[in-house]
């Protein structure tokens, strides 16, 4: 009988905790961006609500994971601040006839959060960012949306981080 452990078992607990908190921050950021988009709520109001009432709480039987609040805030504020840069990049990577304002609001929030990170979080490998947001898409959708997210983000990553994709 083999006693092999998964590679995740070999990671230090602190690294796992930080990674899980970042993943939870990304998920919360997508939800906050969605709320701002659909509910037309302000940045300050949305940040305050999420940081006070959702993160690390249980609400109506749904448990919200503890998240890295600073990372959550960075993403939501970053998308808000750079949306005029982000949306044209997403538009340019979507199929013709499907501009960012025509796609599903959740999908739009996912693509905006991920694009912000691809543009402004160069310390995180593009493949990690893409994988995280594809996983978020899978949590919300059962259809082709995860593949769409992967394709759009891969295209944006190849445009903005060419050095990560060139063979050495």
Structural description of this entry:
The chain has 168 residues and is mostly helical. It is built from seven helices and two strands; from the N terminus they run ααββααααα. It has a single domain, classed as N-utilizing Substance Protein B Homolog, Chain A. β1 and β2 form a beta hairpin. α1 crosses α4. It is globular and about 45 Å long.
Query: How big a fraction of the residues is strand?
Result: under 5%
Q: Given this structure, which CATH class is correct?
A: Mainly Alpha
CATH topology: N-utilizing Substance Protein B Homolog, Chain A
Largest sheet: 2 strands, antiparallel
- Please provide the count of β strands: 2
What Rg, in angstroms, do the CA atoms define? 17 Å
Task: Please state the overall shape, judged from the principal axes of the Cα atoms.
Answer: globular
CATH architecture: Orthogonal Bundle
Specify the number of helices: 7
End-to-end Cα distance: 40 Å
- Percent of residues in helices comes to 55-70%
Low-confidence stretches are: 1-16
Structural class estimated from helices and strands: mainly alpha
CATH superfamily: NusB-like
Query: Into how many domains do the coordinates divide?
Result: 1
Oligomer: single chain
């Amino acid at each position: 009988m083999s006693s092999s452990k998964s590679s995740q078992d070999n990671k230090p607990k602190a690294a796992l905790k930080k990674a899980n908190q970042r993943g939870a921050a990304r998920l919360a950021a997508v939800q906050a961006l969605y709320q701002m988009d659909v509910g037309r709520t302000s940045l300050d109001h949305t940040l305050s609500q999420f940081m006070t009432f959702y993160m690390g709480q249980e609400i109506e039987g749904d448990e919200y994971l503890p998240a890295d609040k600073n990372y959550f805030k960075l993403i939501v504020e970053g998308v808000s601040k750079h949306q005029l840069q982000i949306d044209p990049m997403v538009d340019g990577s979507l199929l013709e006839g499907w501009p960012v304002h025509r796609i599903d609001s959740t999908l739009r929030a996912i693509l905006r959060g991920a694009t912000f990170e691809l543009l402004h979080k160069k310390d995180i490998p593009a493949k990690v960012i893409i994988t995280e947001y594809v996983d978020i898409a899978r949590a919300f959708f059962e259809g082709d949306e995860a593949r769409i997210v992967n394709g759009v983000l891969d295209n944006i990553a190849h445009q903005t981080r060419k050095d990560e994709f060139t063979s050495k």
